[in-house]
Amino acid sequence: MKNLKFYITGILGCFLIRILLFTLRIEHEPEGSLEKIKKSLNIYTVWHCTLLCLAYIGRNTNVQVLVSQHSDGEYIARVIKRLGFSVIRGSTTRGGARAVKALMDKTKAGYSIAITPDGPRGPRCVVQSGCIYLGKKTGVPILPVTVGMSNYWKLPSWDKFRIPKPFSRVLILYGKPLFIPPQLNDEEMEAYRLLLERTMCEMMEKADLLAQQK
After folding, report:
1. CA torsion sign, 8 to 65 to 196 to 39?
2. For the segment 48-100, what is each residue's pLDDT rounded down to a tens digit?
3. Span of 41-45, 89-93, 125-129 with lowest mean pLDDT
4. How confident is the model at residue 155 (pLDDT cuts 50, 70, 90)?
5. Which are the contacts of 27, defined by CB distance < 8 A and separation ≥ 6?
6. I need a surface site. Which of 43, 67, 161, 194 has the fewest CB within 10 A?
7. Could you tell me if 50 and 172 are in contact, meaning their C-beta atoms sit under 8 angstroms apart?
8. Closest by Cα among 71, 19, 33, 26 to 50
């Protein structure tokens, strides 16, 4: 019965996302960034609450996405697989070591990866250290991506998950690549973690303001 629920969720979720996101006015800042980053190898970091829009925008790019092993993660995995992503299961709390190894192997094979640094359970908009560790070990730059929406519903979940309302404006804001030096101690890694967290919070605030302006 549970497998049937997962299957139905994958089909229905993918269908509804395509219908909803088709109505939106989606813009990218800086303009042309999406085409540019598709040609490069990156570790994308996105806040958990903005997954819906980014799952649609990045569809069929074969980006490897880290999804938790919790039951709710299975629903997410089924949907984004149908949108054209490859999924790696694990998180900092469950399956962490295996997930990190799988992510490192994928970057070595030339695949970009996407991580929600505040997932799967929060705290909201607080970067966990896993993405910094991956950047340090792989040499692949971390590219923060945030989303601003002119009008959206906010779910009563830990991340205050955002669902854009039909025909609203969505602005995808791309940050500058952050390279993590390979020789860092714990204190230096913490400094980079705080830098990424501050950068993503500032970017999200900016993206929301820009989405409201036009």
Report:
1. negative
2. 999 888 888 887 777 888 887 766 677 777 887 787 777 787 765 555 677 88
3. 89-93
4. very high
5. 169, 170, 171, 172, 214
6. 194
7. no
8. 26
d(CA 37, CA 50): 19
At 181, which amino acid appears?
A: P
What is the structure's pLDDT at 181?
Answer: 96
Tokens describing residue 8: 């139905």
> CA-to-CA distance for 65 and 166, rounded, in angstroms?
26
150 near 211, Cβ under 8 Å? yes
Tokens 């190894």, residue located: 101
Neighbours of 139 (CB within 10 A): 13
How long is the chain?
A: 214
Using the predicted structure, report yes or no on whether residue 47 has a pLDDT greater than 60.
yes
